[in-house]
Amino acid sequence: MLITGAGKRLGREIALTLARGGWNVAVHHRQSVAEAQQTAADCDALSCRPGSAAPFCADLGDEASVRSLLPAVVAHFGRVDAVVNNASLFEHDSAQSFGFAAMDQHLHTNTGAAILLAQALHAHLQDSGRDGAVVNLLDQKLWNQNPDFFSYTLSKAALEAANTMLALALAPRVRVVGVAPGLTLTSHLLSDEKFQALHRQSPLGRSSTPEDVAATVAFALTNRSITGTTLLVDGGQHLMRFERDFSLM
Fold first, then answer.
1. Tell me, what's the pLDDT at 225?
2. Reduced to 3 DSSP states, what percent helix, strand and coil does the chain have, rounded to the nearest 5?
3. Distance (Å, whole) CA 235 – CA 217
C-alpha cells in the first residue's frame, strides 16, 4: 500500500488507520522527512509487525521522480496492491491572477502524478495476476464551486474526470474510487474558533473528521464492487452554497 503525502495531517491518519487494518504502508513524503519517519514507526507499532511500514521520498511535480516511486516500493515490500493519492499542492490563485505556471504546478502534482501511479500499479498487477485499487482524494468544492484556489480546483476537477476514465481503462484489474472530504483540518488561515464555526456549517451540523475520511478510504479499498465513482464525506457541505473557499470566508 502506497499513500502519498502520508507524513502528516490527513495522510498520516489514513496511514495509521490502514496499518491498524493490517496493511503494509509505504509512507510517501517530499520534504517532511522526520514526520514520515515517525508515521512509519507509528504504523509499525500499530501493526505489531516490525518492517511493515517505511518512508519513501519523491517529488510529485517531477515525472521521473513519480515514475521511480512505485518500483521503489515494490523493491522494498515485494508487492503493492493499492495506491492512495492523498498529497496535494494547494496554493492560492484566482481567475485574475491565473497563469500557466501555477496551472502546470497543480496539474503535475495533483493530477498527473496520481494518473502515473495508477498506471504503474496496473502494470505491476498485470504481471502478478492480482487485483488492486486506487483511491484519489478529491474535494467537496467540485460539487459546490467557487472561484478561489483556481488552479487547485482545476487540477482536482481533472482528477475527478480521470477517475472515470481510469476506472474504464484499468478494469478489471484495478478499481479507481474518489473520496471527497469537506472541511476536515484547520490551517494557518483559520483560527480555531473560525474553523469550528465553519465545520458546523453543513446539513448534519458537522463536516468530516480525519477519522471519517480514513475510514472511507479503508472502505473504498476493501469493497470490490465500487469503481468509477466518488464518495463524498463532508456532512453534506456540498449541498450548501459557499461563495468563497472555507479558508477565505
1. 97
2. 50, 15, 35
3. 16
Distance separating alpha carbons of residues 10 and 242, to the nearest angstrom: 23
Q: What is the pLDDT of residue 2?
A: 98
Residue 186: predicted pLDDT = 86
Q: Are strands 53-57 and 82-85 parallel, antiparallel or unpaired?
A: unpaired
Q: Where are the alpha helices (DSSP H) in 129-227?
A: 150-170, 192-199, 210-222
Q: How many Cα atoms occupy the beta-carbon half-sphere of 69 within 13 Å?
A: 34
For strands 82-85 and 25-29, give the pairing: unpaired
pLDDT at 123: 97
The answer to whether 85 touches 174, Cβ cutoff 8 Å, is no
Q: How many CB atoms lie within 10 A of CB 95?
A: 8
Q: What is the CATH number of the domain that holds 35?
A: 3.40.50.720
Domain with 30, as residue range(s), is 2-248
Helices (H), 60-149: 63-77, 100-106, 113-128
Q: What local confidence, expressed as pLDDT, does residue 50 receive? A: 92
Q: In what order do the strands lie in the sheet with 2-3?
A: 53-57, 25-29, 2-3, 82-85, 132-137, 174-181, 229-233
Residues linked to residue 232 through DSSP beta bridges, in sequence order: 180
- The radius of gyration computed from the CA coordinates of the chain, to the nearest angstrom, equals 17
Q: Which residue has the cell 453534506?
A: 236
Which cell numbers hold the place of 48? 505489531
Residues in the chain where the model's pLDDT stays below 50? none
172 preceded by a cis bond (ω within 30 of 0): yes
| Average pLDDT, rounded, for the chain | 96
What is the structure's pLDDT at 191? 86
Q: What is the number of domains present in the chain?
A: 1
